[in-house]
Each structure stands twice: as C-alpha cells, then as structure tokens.
Amino acid sequence: MAAVPFVPSGYHTVQPYLVVRGAGEAIEFYKKAFGANERMRMAQKDGRIAHAEIEIDGSVVMMADESPEMDAYSPKHYGGSSVSLMCYVEDCDGAYNRALAAGATSVREPADQFYGDRMAGVLDPFGYHWFLSTHVKDVSVEEMQAHMGAE
C-alpha cells in the first residue's frame, strides 16, 4: 500500500485559517474582492459554518464562523487583529480597487516600495488586513538594507 503524502494534494504546508463573524458573507466578499473560488463549505445545524475553504490563485484560505464553545473568536470580538495576509497579485492597483468596490477600507494606497514590490493595503469588513503586492523589480538584500539604514 502506498504511503499517503503528509500534505494533501492541492494544499501547501501552511494555510491561513481565519475565524470570522459571518463566514458566508466573508466568502462572498473574498470572491468579489480577490477572485476567490469556494472549494468547500460545511454548515452546522444552526447555520454557522464549521469549516470552509476558498482558493485565491492556487493558495488555500480556510475559515469558520466564530465558535465560543471552542474559544474561537473573530477580530471583531477582540477589537482588531494582529494578523495580516500578504497576497501577490498580477495587478496591485486593480486588486486594490476591486477590494474597495467590494467593501474593503483602504489602509495603504498603491505605491512602489524600496524592496521591489508595488503594494497596497486594505482592511476587509471582517477585521483582517490584506496587503496586495505585485513584484516589479528584483532588489538584493544589500540594497534593501542600505535603504533601511538611510531612513
């Protein structure tokens, strides 16, 4: 019998797992804002989503509704989150504008960065920060460190 791979097919070794208040609405937002595809959704009898998965350009993001009985709360419960998601996109400006049109709030307008990316930041309606980045130039570690020391 062949050994089962330790990472299931279609996944990476690290998947973000978001706890949100309103997972169904979050899935619809991520579809509009980031072009996500819904992979799966498992609803509980009370209508809450126990587990769902979306895919954004080959990367899986898992999520579930808040579950106080499991001590799993969304950023809204805590008044914000220290977690952010970094998402490489083909067109930073376009992705930023789609996210805003879908209901995100701007936290950082698109701009070229010294480390070689054009980057923007948004806050989604569920309390998570997303940084949208398009790599536009290769920059060496030495160049980045020199720039950091100049500020």
Question: Can I get a quick summary?
Answer:
This protein is α/β, with parallel strands linked by helices. 25% of the residues lie in helices and 35% in strands.
Task: From the structure above, extract its key features.
alpha/beta, globular, 8 strands, 151 residues, four-stranded mixed beta sheet
| CATH homologous superfamily grouping | 2,3-Dihydroxybiphenyl 1,2-Dioxygenase, domain 1
What do we call the CATH topology?
A: 2,3-Dihydroxybiphenyl 1,2-Dioxygenase, domain 1
Number of helical segments with 4 or more residues? 4
Largest sheet: 4 strands, mixed
CA-CA gap between termini? 59 Å
What low-confidence regions span 5 or more consecutive residues with pLDDT below 50? none
CATH class: Alpha Beta
Helix content: 10-25%
Q: Which outline best applies?
A: globular
What structural category do the secondary elements indicate?
Answer: alpha/beta
Taken as a percent bin, the fraction of beta residues is 35-45%
Order of adjacent strands in the largest pleated sheet: 1-4-3-2
